[in-house]
Design a protein that fits this description.
With about 280 residues, the protein is mainly alpha-helical. The chain contains eleven helices and no strands.
């Protein structure tokens, strides 16, 4: 039995009121989550000396989410996919920030031996350690220069040198920084031979970096095979869908097909994680 125009209008009005109620109930929670995410991203970037206001990050996340949602809505007209696509850029921003931090810290680690070489030369010239640290800063590459400038600023503000080095180790938690900081914190108060200590730490770190580069070159073929094996099933499905347009709808249109795709996807992810775990062994 058909509905009268008044009944259609009444149902539409009720649905609109319900949608407005749900939106008003969820809006404060979503706003707080977005603001917390923007502040977290801004804090993470601030630790890497990249200063971006949280409000600017929030506006960027909202703009990217709206762009993705609009694109998906125009392409699929699916409300669920549109809502998911709005969240995807916000989630991906966390991966992007973590990738940026890892990449920058790898640069810092690779520049530590050069810093120790220059610092040892300044100390050998007769400067005190803190004076040598100050004179070394302009001679360093950008990434490590920011780190050492941060340590020197702590010293200028009254923080003892040993404590400033400890704070640097806590700020950049990695074995390479610990191998530099911990011997220095012992040798500086005791008046040990700082030059020999710096040169020995430099040689150890350079040998370690050479070993890591050698391992990366030895595992390059395995990493390429991992990428090929990971991308092969999706490419195979895409090619088979072009050959037989009914292939993918048959898989996604039945319970058995969805189960097979889910198991295949899980096994694919498990294999990729296993290969990554094998290749992530450090020297």
């Amino acid at each position: 039995m058909g509905l009268t125009p008044f009944e259609v209008l009444l149902i539409a009005g009720g649905a609109a009121l319900l949608a407005r109620f749900v939106f008003m109930a969820l809006a404060p929670y979503l706003r707080n989550r977005l603001e917390a995410t923007a502040h977290k991203r801004a804090q993470d970037l601030k630790e890497e000396f990249l200063l971006l206001p949280p409000r600017k990050i929030l506006m960027t996340l909202l703009a990217s989410g709206m762009l993705a949602a609009t694109t998906v809505m125009a392409a699929t007209a699916d409300i669920f996919l549109t809502a998911v696509s709005f969240i995807v850029p916000i989630v991906l921003s966390g991966f992007a920030v973590r990738y940026f931090r890892r990449k920058r810290r790898r640069k810092v680690i690779s520049q530590i031996p050069g810093f120790l070489d220059v610092l040892a030369g300044q100390v050998k010239a007769g400067h005190s350690f803190q004076e040598a640290l100050s004179d070394t800063i302009p001679l360093l590459p950008r990434e490590i220069r920011k780190e050492i400038s941060w340590v020197f600023q702590l010293c200028r503000l009254g923080t003892p040198l040993a404590e400033a080095l400890l704070l640097w180790e806590e700020r950049v938690p990695c074995e390479e920084v610990a191998m530099v900081v911990r011997p220095l914190r012992i040798a500086l108060p005791a008046g040990g031979n700082i030059v020999d200590l710096l040169l020995q730490s430099r040689d150890i770190l350079r040998a370690r970096n050479r070993m890591e580069e050698k391992m990366r070159s030895m595992t390059a073929q395995a990493r390429l095979q991992a990428s090929v094996l990971t991308l092969l099933p999706p490419v195979f499905v895409a090619v088979l869908s072009k050959v037989d347009p009914d292939f993918l709808p048959r898989c996604t249109g039945t319970t058995q097909g969805k189960g097979i795709l889910a198991v295949a996807g899980f096994l694919q992810l498990l294999g990729w994680l296993t290969i990554r775990k094998i290749l992530s062994v450090k020297p």
